[in-house]
Amino acid sequence: MVDVIASARAEGRTLLTEAESKELLHGAGIPVTRARVAKKAKEAVEYAEEMGYPIVLKIVSSDIAHKSDVGGVAVGIDSAKALRTAFKTMMERVSAAAPGARIDGISVQQQAKQGTEVIVGATTDPQFGPVMMFGLGGVFVEVLKDVAFRVVPLEPRDARQMVREIRGFPILEGVRGGEAADLDALESLILKVSDFVAQHPEIAELDLNPVFAYGKGALAVDARVVLAEAKS
Ligand code: ADP
Ligand code: MG
Predict the structure, then answer these.
(1) How far is 8 from 227, CA to CA, in rounded Å?
(2) 65: containing domain
(3) How much is the pTM?
(4) Where is the domain boundary, 110, 132, 164?
(5) Are 103 and 127 part of one and the same domain?
(6) Which atom of ligand 1 is nearest to the CA of 65?
(7) Residue pLDDT, tens place only, 81-129
(8) Is residue 1 part of a domain?
(9) Distance CA 61, CA 41 (A)
(10) Element (H, E) at 47
(11) Which of 162, 168, 222, 224 is 20 to 30 Å from 12 at the Cα level?
(12) 154-167: per-residue pLDDT in tens?
């Protein structure tokens, strides 16, 4: 667990890859789709066969924070043939879109069933220290800034209030026939992330974007951990 952070430090990086971030989070009991990094398409096919199709491929690079911006995410891959094609085209697309970026490979992960997209994050406030953030995914966060914040460490009551105070809360309650989200699972995930950042002061930023909220359970399908600049 400490290894991931130590190896990033040793390389002078502050951005952990998605696969590294998920290893850390998994170790802390936070539900994530785990990702295995493949250097070659053949290796990716082996991982996919073990996991079972459909799978998702994503670029692995500590120089790239937003993978889809550079064509680095491919979902719905349902065969070895589709995987090999997607692997090759992803490498080409990303090299063209992010020239000079260090590419460690492509990660293979199980494709999660679609849920309601929410975001769970942590940032560091210069005055308050670590602060947790919660909101609904997509336009709700990006355009409407409909998010709730609480200073770490959170009490169960804080997590309860956070999920309820966003304006989009009716969506989580299952407005207009939509499935109601498992609020207990979301609150538990938020609390685990709060404990995790409280225990790791070297983490400056953490983003689970998105987390899929289900009728039962919740699962982070993307994760990004940023370390604080090393003290020199
Ligand atoms: P980015 O670095 O661009 O944020 P993401 O890992 O969030 O990349 O992937 C982009 C989108 O692809 C996600 O918002 C989600 O809708 C979908 N996605 C990513 N991983 C999975 C997965 N394991 N299962 C299902 N959908 C996924
Ligand atoms: Mg994402």
Answers:
(1) 9
(2) 34-110
(3) 0.96
(4) 110
(5) no
(6) 2
(7) 999 999 999 999 999 999 999 999 999 999 999 999 999 999 999 999 9
(8) no
(9) 17
(10) helix 41-51
(11) 222
(12) 999 999 999 999 99
